[in-house]
Amino acid sequence: MNLSPVVEVCDLRKAYGQGSLFRRRGRVEALRGVSLSAKSGDVFGLLGPNGAGKTTLIKTLLGVVKPSSGTAFLFGQPAGSSAARMRVGYLPETLRVDRHHTARSALKFYGRLSHMDQASINRRSDELLELVGLQGRDRESVRQFSKGMYQRLGLAQALMHDPDLLFLDEPTDGLDPVGRNEVRKVIERLRGLGKTIFLNSHILQEVEMVCTRVAIMDKGMVLASGAIGSGISIDDNGQSDAIIGSAIGSMIDGKHENAAVTFDLLHPSHQDSSNQADETIRKCFDRFENSHAVIQPLTSPIATHRVVVTPSDDQAVSQSDLDRVVDDLRSHSISIVRLDTRVPTLEDTFMRLISSQQG
Ligand SMILES: Nc1ncnc2c1ncn2[C@@H]1O[C@H](COP(=O)(O)OP(=O)(O)OP(=O)(O)O)[C@@H](O)[C@H]1O
Question: What range(s) does the ABC transporter domain occupy (predicted)?
Fold first, then answer.
């Protein structure tokens, strides 16, 4: 597989002038030094609150918006050049297919816009109608389509000229769970075909389900970017890459994301001298340096205490500290009946980063 970046953005800036041509009222810095890259086969999720700069970034990559400074390359070609555009498909947030169309006639229309001949349009339409699950419904008026079917037709139109890179702006916005699931399946099939997909979304769980990489943006900047998944991915230079979110050995900009560790403990002499048990357990947890442990008594017959260790200063609870505390607990004959590491979700990471910007 070719691992050179499909999308490579370096220090991209965009300032929009505000007001009319005759009365300028300041400038909005929509992009303030954005750098990121996506490799072949990535499903890249662009996340951020309203006004973060996501659409401006996508429009710049499509060549619709001219950057104020910085560089953006698609397949090594300047974004917006005809060589780059030929390899790109786009599903806008609000695609409008004329209501008189059927799925098939709409695809014919878009195929002609891409200068395809009739034989290629027919062949490609058959393939795409099958891919997006609209085969057999292709002669119905789009007026009768559900939002999910309409969106899948939108995906098919974006794929007519068989692009290698697809930009999807809020592809599941406004869809019910069934529609979302259908669109998600198409994205997964496209991923299986080796397409690179760049998508904007506000729906974090959705992104967690389909994306392999994410960037979290706010106020025109990328706050964090990295791979989603378990384990550490390795980039081209053999460096370990950032990991964000769900089943995530979560790292952002090289720092481990905080994961709270919960211990449920059974102290053998708890019934007789609970104060002393509390004290022994507290001492065992004193050794954690960049973390603090909260100890609660439990009334369960199998556990007498719950200890939740929360890391501070953006440092993970270290494995060596965990190993030592386990040894200490065991040396006091305290049983560990449960040890659970709660790894932050993408939503946890997103909320932490965005609220740190507001604070
Ligand atoms: N054509 C424009 N002229 C002036 N300002 C603009 C223009 N387009 C976007 N902006 C401003 O640039 C900033 C970034 O907007 P952008 O649409 O890129 O954000 P976004 O992350 O896509 O937001 P949303 O999630 O609401 O679509 C906002 O402050 C917006 O008001």
Answer: 7-244
268 and 223 fall within a common domain: no
Contact 215, 225 (CB under 8 A): yes
Based on the number of CB atoms within 10 Å of its own CB, is 11 exposed (0-12), middle (13-18) or buried (19 or more)? middle
Q: Is the CB of 168 under 6 A from ligand 1?
A: no
Cβ distance 28 to 15 under 8 Å?
yes
Answer yes or no: is the ipTM higher than 0.90. Answer: yes
Among protein residues, the one whose CA lies closest to atom 2 of ligand 1: 16
Kindly state if the Cβ of 12 falls inside 6 Å of ligand 1.
no
pLDDT at 246: 37
Alpha-carbon distance of 212 to 208, in angstroms, equals 8
Q: What is the Å distance from ligand 1's center to 51 Cα?
A: 5
Number of domains observed in the structure of the chain: 2
Range of the domain at 274: 261-342
Query: Which structure tokens are listed for 108?
Result: 């014919």
Least confident range of 97-101, 168-172, 183-187, 246-250: 246-250
Q: Which among 227, 232, 262 has a CA at the least distance from the CA of 245?
A: 227
pLDDT per residue over 137-191, tens digit each? 989 999 999 888 989 999 999 999 999 999 999 888 888 888 888 889 999 999 8
**Spatial distance between the Cα atoms of 81 and 63, rounded to a whole number of angstroms:** 7
Cβ 51 under 6 angstroms from ligand 1: yes
